[in-house]
Predict the structure of asparaginase.
Amino acid sequence: MRHVVVISTGGTIASRWQGDGYAAEAAGREVLEAGAVPQDVEVRVVDLFTVNSSRLTTDHQLRLLHAVHDALADPEVDGVVVTHGTDTLEESAFFVDLFHGDRRPVVFTGAQQPLDAADGDAAGNLYDALLTAVSGRDIGAVIVFAGQVFAARGTVKRHTVNARAFGDPDGPPLGRVEFGRVSWGRRQPRRAPLPLPERGSATPRVDIVMHHSDADSVLFDAAVSAGARGIVLVGTGAGNANPEIADAVRRAVAGGVRVAVSTRVAAGAVAPLYTGGGAVDLAAAGALLTGTLKPGQARIAVLAALLATGDAASADVELRRLLDTAPKTAPASELYLVDGVGH
Ligand code: ASP
C-alpha cells in the first residue's frame, strides 16, 4: 500500500454554484469522493482551508508550507497532493518548491470546472495527481493538470477557462499521465532548499508594479512608501522601463528594498540588452533580473528569500542563488524517478 496525504485548500475543484457565482465550499473528503483513488493507494485528507485562490495571503501559503512539512514528517507517507485554486496555484506551488528538500513529491492540482459539473475535470486531475505523488522522486513540487506533469518552477496558468490550463512557456513538461501510468520525459535541476521560516513568521510586503507606455514612477514609489521590502518590476520586452523608473529603482535599492525585474511578455528571459531605462540600467541601479520567471513567481522568489533570512544581505545572497539560471544540480546518480503505478 502507498500512502498519500491530500491537503485541501479550496479553489474551483472544491466549488459549487452559490446562486450568483461559484465559490469554494466543499471539504477535502467531498473533493476526493468526486473521483476514484488509484489501486493500492491510501489517502489521508487534511482540510487546511477552503478559499478561492485569488483570496490567498502569504499567511495561507505559510500554513500550507508547514502542513506539507508536517505530512512528510511521517516516514510512511509516499507523497503529498495539494488541491488548490488555479488562479494562484503557480505561486503556492513555487513557494512550497523553494523550501522543499525531500525526495518525496508535492503534487499540486485543481480543476477548471467546478465540483458539481457533470463533465468536470476534477476527478481526472486528482487521480493523475495521486498517481504522480506515488511515482515521482526528486522532482520537488510539481503541477499535474490535464494529463501533464510540470515542474512548479516556470509553470504558469495560460488559459482562463480551458481544461489545459497550465504550461511552461519556456520548456516541455516533466512527464505525462496516460492510461494509469506516469511517463517521465525530462529532469529539471533542483536547487538546495531554503531554510523553513518559523510558524507564524511576520510576512513582508512584496509588491508587483507593471511598466507600460506613459508610465511614471508614482506606483513604484507608492509601493516603497507602503512599506514594501521587495518589489517586482514587470518590464516591457526583455525587462525594460524608462530613466525615471530606473532612478526610482536606485532610490529603493539604496533604501534596502529588494527589486527584481521580470517581464510582461509570455515567454523568454529578461536580459540586459537596452540602456535608456532598459534592463542594463535597472541592473546597474541594483535590481536583480529574474531569468524566465514570470511576475507571480518572481514575486514568490523575493518573498521566500525574505522569509527565509533574517537580514537584507542574506536575503540578497539567497535571492541570487534562487535566480541563478545555471544552478549546481545533484549528481545524476542521486536523481531518480520511479515508474508510475496503478491502473
Ligand atoms: N477562481 C478559482 C480559484 O483560483 C479558479 C480555479 O480554481 O480554477 O480558486
Observations:
- Residues 11-12, 52-54, 85-87, 110, 112 surround aspartic acid (CB under 6 Å).
- Confidence is low (pLDDT under 50) at residues 330-343.
- The radius of gyration is 20 Å.
- The longest strand covers residues 41-51.
